Task: structure prediction
Amino acid sequence: MLKEWYSNSRLSKLILAFGLIAAQLLSFSPGSRANTASELKTTVQASSQAAKPGDEVALKVLVDSGISRSIHIQLQVVGPNGTAVYQQWAYDKPVAAGGVNEYPFKWTVPEGLPAGNYAVSVGIFGASWDAMYSWDSGLAVIQIQSGATLPGFTAEAAVPPSVEAGSQATIKATLVSDQATAGKVALAIHDSSNALVHEQSFAGVTFAANTATSVSTVWAVPEDAVSGAYRIELTVVGADGSTVYYRNASFGSIQVAQSDPGAGATFQTRAVMDSTTAESGEKFDFSAEIKADRNASVLVDVIVKNPYTNEPVLQAVFERQALTAGGILSIPISWNVPADAPSGRYPIEIGIFGNGWQGPYHWNANAGYVQVGGGSVPPIEFVANTAVAQSVVEAGSPQSFAVTATGSADATAIVQVKVLDPQGLTVFQREFPNERFIARQARSFNASWPVPSTAALGTYSVETGIYSADRSHTYYWNSSAVQFAVEAGTPPPTQPDNGATAVWTTSVVAAETAEAGYPTTVTANVASDDYAKALVDVEIYDEHGSKVYQAVFDHQYFQPNAAKSFPVTWSIPASQPRGQYSVSIGVFPESWGTAWKHHWNGGATDFDVNWGIVPDIAHESNADLEAIVPGQKQTIRTRLTSSETLPATVRLELFDSAGSRVASAEYMADEFVQGVANDYSMDWTPDANSVNGTYKLKVSVAKADGVRVFYSNPEAVQFSLSGGIDLTYSLSAATEQEEVSAGQTLNVSAFVGSTVPSVVSMKINFIDVLTGKIVHSESAYNKPIVIDQETAVDIDWTLPKWIRMNEEKVRSGAEPLIQYILDGDYRVDIELYNADMSQRIATHNGAAAFKVVSPDDAPAPQPAEAPALPDIMKLGVFATNNDDHGITGWMPETGLPWNFAYRYLNGGANNQEGWTSWDPYFVGSWQGAYAYDYAKKATDRGYTPVFTFYQMLQSISGDCLNCDETKDDIITLNDPYAMRAYLEEFKLLMQLIGTGEYNGKPGIGKTAIVHVDPDLAGYAQQAVLDNDRCFGQCTGKGNNPAFLKAAVASTRMPELADLPNTYQGYNWALLRLRDLYAPNVIMAPHVNSWGTLIDVGRDTNPNLDVTALGKLAGEFANLSGAKVVPAGIKPYEYIFNDIDDDDAGGSRGYWLDRTNLTLPNFHRWEQFVKAAVETTGKKAMIWQIPVGNQVYRAMDNTPGHYQDNKAEYFFEHMQELVDIGIVGLMFGHGQPGSTSHYNRMDDNGGAPASADYYNPDPLTFSDGWGDGSVHTNDKEADSTDDDGGYLRMQATEYYKHPIPVSNRY
Result:
């Protein structure tokens, strides 16, 4: 019984609390409450209605019952001041249904009891404390006739208004009684959370009538006392403590000021562990180390985050941690890794706050990490609702759609909206790929369709689908989610677009605060002073600058000074960190275009995210019996106390030794009163089929709606069971294939058997035997097992090859990293769990095995003729494909015999933006179709295709998800998984443009050039010259690419097994793949003007030894494959260099003196190139030459029209370039706002070509003229090209008399 479990005094206080707040505390079991009116009625009879001190009053409790059971009865007599003067319990009293049951009590009126009316109250409880049947006050009233009266008091406080933490405060109370008496006085001090921080009692205080009496207490204010107002309480009771004479809970107030040394301290933090790896279902131990430059008392907040959802999976808070200046504080922490934790790299973050959560004073988001092995994919179901803005819309007007979707589990999904016309044809489709859903949290998606003015009239249907990220599963599909009608409309007027010159005004309206776990709406307001078309981008950032939400509104049309509002709703994750968040607005050209410089309002407004009320929960649980057998009742009692008054959901769950839940109880929205305990009880009787072993009770307390768990203890109570069934399992697996390749499907069957019927979940892990790494994991949930019959789980796993990840979401942790599966031996491990995967039961490592192999591709045949280039100074341009600007548009339209059409192949080898999936509508959706189509159309028109293979930066490495560009390139170069994807794509390119036939498609087979990653070459040379730029990846220092490590043979690509894992080996790998699959291809490394650690193009030092730097760059290229290669590998044929990557008038470019009188100038740059050519013995191609000029009025130094003098100088000094070994020039813009040689800016808004000449007012300048002369660009445009037509005009003149060159040194 509770009486035996807790002390009587605590029990009395508990029951008194029940009586005072009975309206809130009526739920002792899930969903049940005794019905007082229909089950029990209580009355009281008193032997006398009046009494005096010393008299005995007989009290009879009468219970009219509709049920039969045992009850507990509590009787109280309460005085006129609300204080109980008498209390008596009667336990385990039987009550019979259908009659009135009598229970006698006796009360002897104590001597000295003051006169007044005293009321009798009675409470009736179930004998097992499973119900409160009634609590009734005033059932009888007894008038006490006495000469005694209670004294009346007045009191004054003398309190200092404020005090410093660490000092002392004297509090004085002066009291006056209206009669002579004696009593006990108590002074108490409470902090802002009502916690008692100081109390002093004064016994035996005598009071003369109407005479002041004073007491005082001295409070030693702790040094770490939290700043704020502290409440002073004064109480006077009778000498025996039974009667309260006076109580003032707000007698006074004192302000504590805290000068926190932690606020100005400098902190260093890190997570320290013996090993960074952990398995799901196991305990992971680590320590948080903190160092400060001064003594301080602080609160330490340690968080472990899920790498995919960025939500905390562990938060440990340590208050009042004492730091000593220069010393190290180590705090041990244990994390019980959930059994269903997905595999991945879990970051550890450490924050330092004041003890009242002031700050943070310090936050380290990269304190450490733990690599968790394993993974699971929970079953997913979705519900969705689709709505349209208009049930009837006119043709030519926009229609908007809103989809609200909710998933049953965390998931990454594709949300698709289709519009079908009256004939059932798809006329509009919008997809939201790789959207992250949090379980049971709704997300909204908005799409807008500009209904064409020519749209068919009639009823349109909207089809909504939700699919897994790889489209292998359909989570939800509704072929007619909503319908609307299209009616004839008025043709819209022509809309001008002056976005390039418009002045944008933006603002944001948002609530000041929002609670995590709930949606918040922010409204962006955008206005333009002119007619404009634009894309509106709304982004929310946390206080560390990380983007947490984004909404985009494309194809928006603005009229002058007419603001438009864009409300967006962010469903804030329940675990979103507290703090200040900012909202930014961007206005861009439509479809993220670059036609004009965008408007950006960073930090348009701020708001705070909080967690609402987060109580501290005190918890006690006890089991009646330490060991039980089947058929024996076990009772478990739990007491919970909250530091706050609030409703909460309490969940009690009992698990057997296999982790299966055998009993549970949930108390929804149970009311907690600050400091008052709530009691819960669970009875469980095991049957004969119960499993032997240890049983555990899990206690959880959550927010009333379940959004946030305040407290959880998975081992609140333990007891053992014997005499039941010994449970054993069998685990095995088999693979259908012994060997499998990337891109193929492996079929695996896993089997589980059991000695008893049970329901289990399984995790099947695929392990790389060489590294021990889990490369793939799948889970099966809630699988029933029949005795002596195995249950099978079938898995069809397609090994990833052409990997397409969302870079932003992977780098932010919103989506998992996908890696290439390397060649080698693999095994299948099985882990067995209870049904909800909260406990691992058994494992079988090596249950099956298989091997990953690569297909054996035969080398391509040698070309009929060796690849060759014309023996003239060759010209080329940056060219796109299948549009008006490139090899099928601008180039043939000029009528010139261009030699080169060049194009970046970029986007990342394992990135959804990668080149292998570009432009499917024009070239097809097969891998690499764009490059194949580009090479074919270029060679068909007589242009040599030049591909700049720029894949390293945007390739995604799990070792460097949030690095700067230099580190990203170096670390990715050393990631065997990212590099295998990179090298496979390079091999694919060689097969597509080579001389062989692969995958049923013959290669292009004509001369082409591949230019190897230019920036990577510069970073690599800088790394070996300065090992501080190596990021731990160098084995030595010096101008040797062999000193920089790289993943080559370690990618396990069969063709590269004998090559070294160095940057030198990386270059040799590319050359070998060229030799094997595309012997018709010419290759060139990049020789950077800045790779030597000195940027020759910008340096103004007159004593600089430029020739020596050119030789240094050339020597690095030689060792990278320009000269030095293993037997059987052909070296690079040319070298590339770029003079600048932006126009000099742009934000990144620089001027060279065309007069060669000042530095930097052209002659110095030519000196560098000449030295590199002579050192390598390879002729040079100059690539990505800025197109700007200082001739045409179109060059007005606005986006797309920036000035430069490099193209002019080259055309005016062509022989000078030939003389130093340059044999090719390729012109093109290197930045979004750089000048282009074609009409990219479309300045006059799509006007006919004859009217689309751009001729702003001329400029006067001396930029690039070292002689100080002043010039004007006063020539009117000769074409609609953004450069005024300069490049096409100069090329026309050049090709009349091309300069002969020798392509060999």
